[in-house]
Amino acid sequence: xxxxxxxxxxxxxxxxxxxxxxxxxxxxxxxxxxxxxxxxxxxxxxxxxxxxxxxxxxxxxxxxxxxxxxxxxxxxxxxxxxxxxxxxxxxxxxxxxxxxxxxxxxxxxxxxxxxxxxxxxxxxxxxxxxxxxxxxxxxxxxxxxxxxxxxxxxxxxxxxxxxxxxxxxxxxxxxxxxxxxxxxxxxxxxxxxxxxxxxxxxxxxxxxxxxxxxxxxxxxxxxxxxxxxxxxxxxxxxxxxxxxxxxxxxxxxxxxxxxxxxxxxxxxxxxxxxxxxxxxxxxxxxxxxxxxxxxxxxxxxxxxxxxxxxxxxxxxxxxxxxxxxxx
Length: 327
Prior knowledge:
Layout: E1 3-5, E2 12-14, E3 18-19, H1 21-24, H2 32-44, E4 49-51, H3 60-68, E5 77-82, H4 96-110, E6 117-121, H5 125-130, H6 132-142, E7 149-152, H7 156-163, E8 168-174, H8 186-192, E9 196-200, H9 223-226, H10 244-252, H11 264-273, E10 280-281, H12 288-295, H13 305-319
Parallel strand pairs: 3-4, 4-5, 5-6, 6-7, 7-8, 8-9, 9-10
Antiparallel strand pairs: 1-2
């Protein structure tokens, strides 16, 4: 497993790591025993970094990670997130009292003394501009409660603002073949400032696996059903902001990327890893098979300069205009 430095945090993490939203909930039914087997398989294959949040299954993902990483705390790094248990637009949500309590709660569920990376979970830009939350995180860092902190952002504008904050050491961004906007400015700026980049939704909620058809249906408790048009949270978190049917149509036009790379899943992840500014991709999973499929990217060859140009043109000419919401 190739590893890359997580900005200037001092951590070096597997370039293919995993997000744990799906094993907590909001992606359909889960099986805890299978989730634990999948986590064990990932670690067996060299994965040493997992991303979670306090709201994933109301703490369920954090508790599963505690069980899976017991005895491996010094080797397996965990990033978690906070703020979405409260009103994300209310400044009081980011008070020292609230943030400290959420931090302590996550530490307890994860059964750890220090959080490797603590991230603000997609806050509004107006909150970030107030600045108080960064002061709180600085204090928790000085106390040793957190090793480093970062921000999970929805838009490039938010990401660029966060790069101006001296304490921010990592950004979690939406970046995939359907969301290429970060390439122009965010990626080079982050690299220049030594800020690590975690890529969430690398497969656009599964669209870039190439397995969906316009007739595909999702379980009622799956956000790909209940948030398809942004009914519950930011529309960009589901199918990268694309209308589902349009996303299926566009994905079918990308089937060529799988040639010589196994399948579209591996090719889509490989494209992301071609960018040296990226620290790691964090696809989701619900079972061992999905972990193994994602890890297959290790055998996928990089894209040529001509292929990268073709994919840039595809995004500009056929994808960009269909993305909904700020990004």
